[in-house]
Design goal:
Blueprint: H1 3-25, H2 29-42, H3 46-57, H4 64-76, H5 80-89, H6 93-102, H7 106-115, H8 119-132, H9 137-149
Helix pairs in contact: 2-4, 4-5, 6-7, 6-8, 7-9, 8-9
């Protein structure tokens, strides 16, 4: 038996052990994904954080919770372009705005509202923004104008 074949057998055995562990400990893929995302936050090097976040961007279909966690992680890592890409993956506009408000990025939150097309959605997002509390006076005035324009 060649060294390579021995390695293949060992790898298969390791995979089998991992699967057994997952089943016995009831570890699902979501837990593993959360752990991988948590590791990014622990890395002190910004370039390494950016590289790992970019790897997640290449995944075609991410779970909604993963998009939220990755957006928050990218925000903390000061990778705003990557953060915005993860935010765009979140389908629910209210959830997206809530995350941006949690990040205290009022200018981007205003952009999200301005980008919305449906009148009801605009009003709902403005209400959510007002309930959260607006710190910037210019943004407060702009939100008031948007509300006036979209009154029923």
């Amino acid at each position: 038996m060649s060294f390579y074949r021995g390695f293949e057998m060992d790898r298969k055995e390791v995979e089998r052990n991992v699967n057994t562990f997952k089943q016995s400990m009831e570890v699902d893929d979501k837990i593993i994904l959360r752990a991988k995302i948590a590791v990014i936050e622990e890395i002190g090097n910004k370039d390494e954080q950016k590289k790992r976040l970019d790897q997640f961007l290449s995944i075609k279909k991410l779970e909604p919770f993963a998009c939220e966690l990755l957006a928050l992680t990218a925000h903390r890592a000061e990778q705003l372009d990557i953060r915005n890409k993860f935010l765009k993956m979140i389908q629910n506009p209210r959830k997206r705005l809530g995350l941006v408000l949690q990040m205290q990025d009022e200018p981007y939150a205003l952009e999200l509202i301005k980008g919305e097309r449906e009148k009801d959605a605009i009003l709902a997002l403005c209400s959510q923004f007002l309930l959260f509390g607006i710190k910037n006076e210019n943004i407060r005035i702009t939100i008031s104008k948007i509300l006036q324009e979209n009154k029923a």
